């Protein structure tokens, strides 16, 4: 037997999943499952769309309508699903490379449209599936198999990117802060508009090893020590903020949602017949 | 019966719309018609041509090769398309265009199409509709009323009387 | 009843045909010379309670079309050469996941940006081989505005019937041509609905081996929670690394089309069986060929034509049958020689097959076709 | 309602996260798989279930 949550939301015959020992993705996938279960969504009305990469294998394990698509394009597929059937709760699971490199254009435009899709980015700062190449979120100076001398690219802040592009709910948590992750996903699903929740994951196999940051436990402890809630930022001294990164809810606003706006056009202009 | 027409000028003069109206008038009368165009990448100002073929049988090849009638509203268009004509062709040009006396065609009509639109009617954009009045006179197979009906179908709402006047003025420009 | 006769542009007729076939979703990105299809869709779809979305790029246009089809829509996208190249990966996705949708490619001159406003037929091979891997392709190519309407309806029907993306391979000649069309009455043309599952969700296998090799498709949100993936999958829809399953899947994908060629292959011919010389063309060039054939026959030459409307799969068997007594076969296309390849494959004596090619952005004229014929028969026009 | 710690060793990949984050040192690895070493000390805090990436340990309501 597996836990109630897991047997309710996962295709347990597909488990164990393919992720490496200690991979943070499993923790983040559970957070999505718990959020859906807590919200008591109708399982038949939940659609999980993913792209390609380690993160994107999540869709196959989750017992909903699942669409595992092409690299970078999950949001474009999801836009089709949601726009064609706005009754569905559409949740996109994507990775840092999938969302912000090959799929960067779709990400900013999905944000801009404010279509009611909840996007969960499993950010492990590396291309795991292809063996550890640096990604758009690999910190400057860190190593990957294609950055053997240290990465000179500046890293994307996916949350700032999403906020700047027009997403109306933006939050970040980590695989260590799993309860916060669950809370933000629930808020995101309930939010009428485009929501993005970045979950900082951990990749012991490639990122941790390549950058000498230790194994699964060390990486989780690193998340615990590094990430500070944005709410307490102003209360901490500059010394305490040294080398810290921020998590929490960065943006939450109410703006017209895409499918609802289009429904208004149909209501105003549909004639029932051609012309 | 098969009649090939080429309506040429510069982009933005509404010649494609004029071509569509002629073709539509023809099919409303039960004839066959096809309309095609070629254009450059510019939205406005480049050379533009619209072609119409009207016939009572099926029309296969859609492009005009030897126009029965060439309408040219710009010098560039006139110079470019004059070579495709033969002794049976009819040319309709705006009076502002320099024509060569040696051209061997059936007839050249040099008419104040642009001036009629801009001065007499006061809207230079209706030059295409003035031209349609002229062309209707030169195509006996087309009924005046069916061309006018097609014009009124295609022009923006509220401009019906303006365009009707332009069409009538075009008819007046040519006395056969 | 008053006949609904209109002057319509090919691109406009495509949208009217699509709506007639039940299209209720369009996603795309503007590109010349297909743009009118997006423009007319953006107006007619909401009027008909359908949906139109302009995406951020061509790739997204294809992805969103597939996503909508998964959610139950009859979805279409339209593009031209460069955009068709960009869509290829997701077209392959729709092939292996068996998602019905229609992709219109109004071909223009190429490669690359080429002559954007001028016609070409250089995407014939790309329609078949554009995406990586082996997969079946149905591509239809209309010649007249009426045919644009009818073949758009057929494209939707084939996509639903065989659960496959269908390509409507138009060209600028037909896309921008305005012509008289009698719009079919409702019910006049057959409309094929999606084959939905009849079993309970617990019994449903998304990629089951049915007798007709086309598994019923459950729309997302209807109680059948299943998995769709571009990875090789077994009958349940879940990924597998089994070489046996991979072979089984690809064989089925090919067979579901190849077993139904009688239904899928559409072509037009004139004097094709008896003629000494045969002209072959598709799309806009068929118009030139038909005029050339009419002119040559008036002059006493025994010529005919064969015009595939289903350009993929190529009607190989019919080509073979009519090629037996031929002295010459001319393949006229606005490219440097693409459809000539499957023609040669079908014809026993390859030496009689000659190309009439033009790839300068201009339509091949009937005179040019007649000229090629005269060069070969070495006989002046009477 | 009481809770009981349940393990599912066949899903365990032996990453050691649950062992490290258990505040009462209840857990350990045996042959690379999750094992309950000292069940009596368990305070049912659920840290192991929250953090296990492989769903190989959970609290069951009994």
Automatic annotation (TrEMBL), chain A:
<dbReference type="GO" id="GO:0030976">
    <property type="term" value="F:thiamine pyrophosphate binding"/>
</dbReference>
<dbReference type="InterPro" id="IPR029061">
    <property type="entry name" value="THDP-binding"/>
</dbReference>
<dbReference type="GO" id="GO:0045333">
    <property type="term" value="P:cellular respiration"/>
</dbReference>
<protein>
    <submittedName>
        <fullName>2-oxoglutarate ferredoxin oxidoreductase subunit beta</fullName>
    </submittedName>
</protein>
<feature type="domain" description="Thiamine pyrophosphate enzyme TPP-binding">
    <location>
        <begin position="52"/>
        <end position="198"/>
    </location>
</feature>
<dbReference type="GO" id="GO:0016625">
    <property type="term" value="F:oxidoreductase activity, acting on the aldehyde or oxo group of donors, iron-sulfur protein as acceptor"/>
</dbReference>
<dbReference type="InterPro" id="IPR011766">
    <property type="entry name" value="TPP_enzyme_TPP-bd"/>
</dbReference>
<dbReference type="Pfam" id="PF02775">
    <property type="entry name" value="TPP_enzyme_C"/>
</dbReference>
<keyword id="KW-0560">Oxidoreductase</keyword>
<dbReference type="InterPro" id="IPR051457">
    <property type="entry name" value="2-oxoacid:Fd_oxidoreductase"/>
</dbReference>
From TrEMBL, chain B:
<dbReference type="InterPro" id="IPR019752">
    <property type="entry name" value="Pyrv/ketoisovalerate_OxRed_cat"/>
</dbReference>
<keyword id="KW-0560">Oxidoreductase</keyword>
<dbReference type="InterPro" id="IPR002869">
    <property type="entry name" value="Pyrv_flavodox_OxRed_cen"/>
</dbReference>
<dbReference type="Pfam" id="PF01558">
    <property type="entry name" value="POR"/>
</dbReference>
<dbReference type="GO" id="GO:0047553">
    <property type="term" value="F:2-oxoglutarate synthase activity"/>
</dbReference>
<dbReference type="InterPro" id="IPR052554">
    <property type="entry name" value="2-oxoglutarate_synth_KorC"/>
</dbReference>
<feature type="domain" description="Pyruvate/ketoisovalerate oxidoreductase catalytic">
    <location>
        <begin position="11"/>
        <end position="172"/>
    </location>
</feature>
<protein>
    <submittedName>
        <fullName>2-oxoglutarate synthase subunit korC (2-ketoglutarate oxidoreductase gamma chain) (KOR) (2-oxoglutarate-ferredoxin oxidoreductase subunit gamma)</fullName>
        <ecNumber>1.2.7.3</ecNumber>
    </submittedName>
</protein>
From TrEMBL, chain C:
<protein>
    <submittedName>
        <fullName>2-oxoglutarate ferredoxin oxidoreductase subunit alpha</fullName>
    </submittedName>
</protein>
<feature type="domain" description="Pyruvate flavodoxin/ferredoxin oxidoreductase pyrimidine binding">
    <location>
        <begin position="16"/>
        <end position="244"/>
    </location>
</feature>
<feature type="domain" description="Pyruvate:ferredoxin oxidoreductase core">
    <location>
        <begin position="275"/>
        <end position="369"/>
    </location>
</feature>
<dbReference type="Pfam" id="PF01855">
    <property type="entry name" value="POR_N"/>
</dbReference>
<dbReference type="InterPro" id="IPR029061">
    <property type="entry name" value="THDP-binding"/>
</dbReference>
<dbReference type="GO" id="GO:0016491">
    <property type="term" value="F:oxidoreductase activity"/>
</dbReference>
<dbReference type="InterPro" id="IPR050722">
    <property type="entry name" value="Pyruvate:ferred/Flavod_OxRd"/>
</dbReference>
<dbReference type="InterPro" id="IPR009014">
    <property type="entry name" value="Transketo_C/PFOR_II"/>
</dbReference>
<dbReference type="InterPro" id="IPR033412">
    <property type="entry name" value="PFOR_II"/>
</dbReference>
<dbReference type="InterPro" id="IPR002880">
    <property type="entry name" value="Pyrv_Fd/Flavodoxin_OxRdtase_N"/>
</dbReference>
<dbReference type="Pfam" id="PF17147">
    <property type="entry name" value="PFOR_II"/>
</dbReference>
<keyword id="KW-0560">Oxidoreductase</keyword>
UniProtKB/TrEMBL annotation, chain D:
<keyword id="KW-0408">Iron</keyword>
<protein>
    <submittedName>
        <fullName>2-oxoglutarate ferredoxin oxidoreductase subunit delta</fullName>
    </submittedName>
</protein>
<dbReference type="Pfam" id="PF13187">
    <property type="entry name" value="Fer4_9"/>
</dbReference>
<dbReference type="InterPro" id="IPR017900">
    <property type="entry name" value="4Fe4S_Fe_S_CS"/>
</dbReference>
<dbReference type="GO" id="GO:0051539">
    <property type="term" value="F:4 iron, 4 sulfur cluster binding"/>
</dbReference>
<dbReference type="InterPro" id="IPR050572">
    <property type="entry name" value="Fe-S_Ferredoxin"/>
</dbReference>
<keyword id="KW-0411">Iron-sulfur</keyword>
<feature type="domain" description="4Fe-4S ferredoxin-type">
    <location>
        <begin position="33"/>
        <end position="62"/>
    </location>
</feature>
<keyword id="KW-0004">4Fe-4S</keyword>
<dbReference type="InterPro" id="IPR017896">
    <property type="entry name" value="4Fe4S_Fe-S-bd"/>
</dbReference>
<feature type="domain" description="4Fe-4S ferredoxin-type">
    <location>
        <begin position="3"/>
        <end position="32"/>
    </location>
</feature>
<keyword id="KW-0479">Metal-binding</keyword>
